[in-house]
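FORM 7B: Structural annotation worksheet

SECTION A. Query
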Amino acid sequence: MQDLGTLGSGASAAYGVSADGRVAIGTAQYYDEYWYELLRAFRWTIAEGMRNLGTLGGHESWAFGVSADGHVVVGESYNATGELRAFRWQNGVMQDLGVLPDGGWSGASGVSADGEVVVGSSYNAAAQLRAFRWTAATGMQDLGTLGGSESAAIGVSADGSVVVGWARSGEQDRAFRWTAAGGMQDLGTLGGNSYAYGVSADGRAVVGLSINTAGQQCAFRWTAARGIEDLNRTYASLLTNGSRLGAAYAISHDGRYIVGQGYNAATRRSEAFLLDTGFPLRGDVSRDGCIDDADLLRVLFEFGGRGYRNEDINWDGVVDDADLLEVLFNFGSGC
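SECTION B. Predicted structure
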């Protein structure tokens, strides 16, 4: 664990990281020219350390998401009139993304791999919180609800086509998965409220937390094939007696690794966890558990293509020799 420092005052917190781990973003305390202690969005790199990203004209800002290459940062900031607005930062410029029509506050929580799609939440004209999806071409789009009055978007897939978060449904908050074709899909619950926080690059796996029938907070994973599943049950053999996985906050681009917070009975404290689910195997492009000709052909057909996708096994934004070698080195595994 490496200390990333501060912006001159006492505390800082990181909320996002680039695909290669070289750029981190978050919020840190900062002293202005009058020695007032404020909060500012930051971008940290190995070469430059922690950089203050400024504001939209107000006093404070927060960064919550970063693109795969680390060049685009999103979050929220006060503007010159004291209103909180979602922002998109790139090349030293912080852009105000506005609000839903006649709405108030807005804040961005996630961004696609290429930095072109931003998701978050904004109040609408009726002062109801609504999930949004923003692009330069369409502006801020209200993603609707699950029948209730409010929703919030938290995560987005690599290409920006799948958005996850929570929405009100009857008397409960429910995790959702949104696509342009299917609209907002209720991912279900383990008993009580549920909230989706992270999604794999291809949008096929979603993680979050839900309250079970016993009133306990549980980390979950959702897939179309298995529905919503309690990770405490699925991976019970990996947990010591009394330990629990309470919340899953993020999932790796290939869906294999899940991180979050839980309770460690051995130390009697809340701790961060990293869960290796074992699937998919390295080089399993088709996600069928077997590294074979089908995976090799997919990499060859996409060879030279740019963009973050399953064929980009090392997740560097281009399908090239390195990805082909990953398939070849692991050829036959799982078959």
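SECTION C. Observations
The chain has two domains: 12-276, 280-335. The mean pLDDT is 96.

SECTION D. Sign-off
Analyst initials: ____
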